[in-house]
Amino acid sequence: MNCKYFGECGACIVYENGYEHQLFLKLEVNKERFSPFFSDEISVFKSLQSNYRSRSEFKIWHIEDELHYAMNHIDKNGVVLIDECPQVSKPIFDLMPKLLMAIKENNIGFKLFGADFLSSNSGEIVVSLLYHKPLDSLWRDIATKIASELGIYIIGRSRKQKVVIGQDYVTEILNINSQIFKFNYIENSFTQPNSIVNEQMIEWSLSGLSGTDKDLLELYCGAGNFTIPFAKKYNKILATEISKSSINAAKVNMCLNDVENVEFVRMGVEEFIQALDGVREFNRMKGIDIKSYTIDTIFVDPPRSGMDETTCNFASRYENIIYISCNPETLARDLTILCKTHVVKEMALFDQFPYTHHAEMGVKLTKKRNHL
User: Fold this and answer.
1) How many other C-beta atoms are found inside a 10 Å radius of the C-beta of residue 198?
2) Which residues sit opposite 122 in a β-bridge?
């Protein structure tokens, strides 16, 4: 990827010597980090080198009567004014100058301080325009006109206000091992930002599974990104997530893909363990016969903080653990607990965010014989 803002814009930190070099550096760091747990080759999954981000956020900077996109400076001192970003998906890249021009020409830039973009690989785009002022009916009329002209959806946001022009989601189409899955990605909620790498993560997680009469337990299921493809491989799935909006999205995505063997439960991990162990009863678990599940595998995709000791010990009950991590440091910490009872069989690095120090990791663990 070539970018005229390398060295200034803080979005890309590791850019010298090109894509392959930054990927090599990530791999070497993580080989060393995980050497106490895994000595075989780490599988590496590459990103596209440009136009890979389907989700992006930009500041809107005002200089006299002009509007500019802006990003934090690489040294975190001030901002860099930009007119393009080669990280973003092609639909977002093409839209950025047109949108800014439409905002200027229609005079809806006053008190505008941010623009968040969400695209799908089918070309749909939702743009959230963030304001430090209330939005009135005139703004709605103008935004409706712009949305129609540009073929996009627009969300206007200000304090305690959300104005939806069209819809607040895009539909992503994932090709997983030649099988098509559809997901509604909702504005202002977590979604995987790199579509190609997301497909690779799901396929790697599914690899080696040829179908089973066993059941799967998933913690931190989000909107069902992994759950729904897993549903094609397992007899039943019990999936938990603390976010109400994510659970609602997961249920919609389940219907989009004609999946019927998943139970989504809105519950934090600590509460779920209490329910599973019979320590407490929860209304949210009514109608779910926990004893009917024969679970031999647990799948986890926790936040950057990773799993706490209680959750690690809980995961250690199961024969197989599949762990997707967005923070290698907390993954290494968690493996010190998990590897007391389990051994790492496979490890993967997913280059979710090229030109940064960030690496997404995947680990598959199997219980040691003396702990079966």
Assistant:
1) 23
2) none
CB 316 within 8 A of CB 340: yes
Burial of 106 (0-12, 13-18, 19+ CB in 10 A): middle
Residue intervals of the chain classified under CATH 3.40.50.150 are 18-49+194-371
Per-residue pLDDT averaged across 279-302, rounded? 89
**How far is residue 8's CA from residue 15's CA, in Å, rounded to a whole number?**
11
The share of the chain scoring above pLDDT 70, in percent, equals 99
Task: Print burial letters for 81-95: b (CB count within 10 Å at least 16), e (below 16).
Answer: ebeebbbbbebbbeb
| Pairing label, strands 236-241, 215-219 | parallel
Q: Which string of DSSP letters, residue by residue, matches 233-275?
A: TSSEEEEEES-HHHHHHHHHHHHHTT--SEEEEE--HHHHHHH
**pTM of the predicted protein model:** 0.94
Residue spans in the chain of domains classed CATH 2.40.50.1070 = 55-170
For the cut 70, the answer to whether the pLDDT of residue 210 exceeds it is no
**pLDDT tens column, 34-52:** 999 999 999 999 999 999 9
Give catalytic residue positions: 326, 360
152: left (phi over 0), alpha (psi -120 to 50) or beta: beta
CB 30 within 8 A of CB 36: no
Query: How many whole angstroms separate alpha carbon 132 and alpha carbon 24?
Result: 43
What CATH number has the domain spanning 18-49+194-371?
3.40.50.150
Q: What is the CATH number of domain 55-170?
A: 2.40.50.1070
Residues 230-272 pLDDT 10s: 999 999 999 999 999 899 999 999 999 999 999 999 999 999 9
